[in-house]
Write a structure and sequence with these properties.
The chain is α/β, with parallel strands linked by helices. The protein contains three helices and three strands. The chain has a three-stranded parallel beta sheet, sandwiched between helices.
């Protein structure tokens, strides 16, 4: 069985790396992005079982990023 794929998005690099390491240690396949634009690009190049998204980021904030992600994947579900 393939590992669940998770996309982590946060502009705080140290936090992002620590969380990615912890999730990876639990058997998840983790990809990271430090900007909303990078997250959208990654999501367009593959599929993810979950996205953990920071709401307060410069440039595309979390809500704008979520809107773009859901626009690309209209059958996906989101939760707060």
């Amino acid at each position: 069985m393939a590992a669940e794929r998770v996309l982590l998005v946060d502009d705080e690099v140290e936090f992002l790396e620590a969380l990615a390491e912890r999730m990876g240690a639990r058997g998840l396949e983790v990809l990271t992005a430090t900007t909303g634009a990078d997250a959208v690009a990654l999501a367009r190049s593959g599929t993810f079982d979950a996205v953990v998204l920071d709401l307060a980021m410069p440039g595309l904030d979390g809500l704008e990023t979520l809107s773009l992600l859901l626009g690309d994947h209209p059958t996906s579900r989101s939760c707060s």
